[in-house]
Amino acid sequence: MQEVGNELSITQRISLRRPAMPRAMAKIAEVILAHPTAPVELTITELADRAGTSPATVTRFCRAIGFDGYTQFRVGVAAESGRGDAGTTWRTDIADDISQDDPADRVLLTLLGLHTRSMETTTSLLDLDDVQLVARAIAESRHVDIYGVGGSGVIAEEFRGRLYRIGVNAHSWSDVHDGLTSAVLQDGSSVAVGISNTGSTEETIEMLSHARAAGALTVAITARADSWLASIADVAFITSSASPTDRPDDLSIKHAQLLVIDLLYVLVAQRTLGKAATRLAASAMAVSSHRRATPSPLERGPRREKESAR
């Protein structure tokens, strides 16, 4: 929560607290002091990249100067700079290629094109020899660690769930302390996967680095071939966000990542077909009693009539 009664401007508060900040947070302070309106113009990911740090560090920085998070911080900066108009917020956070007044059909077609290009670009960037190498390593592994923070953590958990269902000893980690504890226990029979669209998330880089030092085959899934995450991985799968602004809420980023993990999942299942089929059947039976059968026409209630669009 923003500090009550604090009459200092945001830049003054940053200047006062900068000397006591950790180096990663101080780099964010340097960027903002040099360009005070940067938070209004940049997403949290873009600001993190500009400062050479991670979105999580940006969030900690915001809290250190009295804001709940990046959104509240941006609102404060916008208010002080007189740039808090809805148009700027829309272009930065929602969409630069979709107008606030576009009809639903145009929005749909624009999003379809965006997501399709993301999937097609990711497909063209994948090296299938590398994909098959990783799939084979996962199928033969003793243990698979998957690291991801924030939105990438959701993808990591999805990958873990799929692999676990077909008999792979997989675990996903978003908390860096838990992830590091697991990473240092890996060895040459393990596979470690780090997922980060920007490839600059400090926690994911740190976890994957420790897994590599322990001897695991390391894999990066990222949109940045020149990122830290890609540079420390034995194999890097480069995805495309298909968005020049890398909006945090751009779901085409997630779809590109999902394409990669789905491909790996299917190839691993091919290599463990007997065990995979048995496990999938067992898990389906285990939850079958919690699924309702499709209702008959007599059991279905009457549909509501659609109201005309206003």
From TrEMBL:
<dbReference type="InterPro" id="IPR009057">
    <property type="entry name" value="Homeodomain-like_sf"/>
</dbReference>
<dbReference type="InterPro" id="IPR001347">
    <property type="entry name" value="SIS_dom"/>
</dbReference>
<feature type="compositionally biased region" description="Basic and acidic residues">
    <location>
        <begin position="300"/>
        <end position="310"/>
    </location>
</feature>
<protein>
    <submittedName>
        <fullName>MurR/RpiR family transcriptional regulator</fullName>
    </submittedName>
</protein>
<dbReference type="Pfam" id="PF01380">
    <property type="entry name" value="SIS"/>
</dbReference>
<keyword id="KW-0805">Transcription regulation</keyword>
<dbReference type="InterPro" id="IPR047640">
    <property type="entry name" value="RpiR-like"/>
</dbReference>
<dbReference type="InterPro" id="IPR046348">
    <property type="entry name" value="SIS_dom_sf"/>
</dbReference>
<dbReference type="InterPro" id="IPR000281">
    <property type="entry name" value="HTH_RpiR"/>
</dbReference>
<dbReference type="InterPro" id="IPR035472">
    <property type="entry name" value="RpiR-like_SIS"/>
</dbReference>
<feature type="region of interest" description="Disordered">
    <location>
        <begin position="286"/>
        <end position="310"/>
    </location>
</feature>
<dbReference type="InterPro" id="IPR036388">
    <property type="entry name" value="WH-like_DNA-bd_sf"/>
</dbReference>
<keyword id="KW-0804">Transcription</keyword>
<feature type="domain" description="SIS">
    <location>
        <begin position="134"/>
        <end position="274"/>
    </location>
</feature>
<feature type="domain" description="HTH rpiR-type">
    <location>
        <begin position="8"/>
        <end position="84"/>
    </location>
</feature>
<keyword id="KW-0238">DNA-binding</keyword>
<dbReference type="Pfam" id="PF01418">
    <property type="entry name" value="HTH_6"/>
</dbReference>
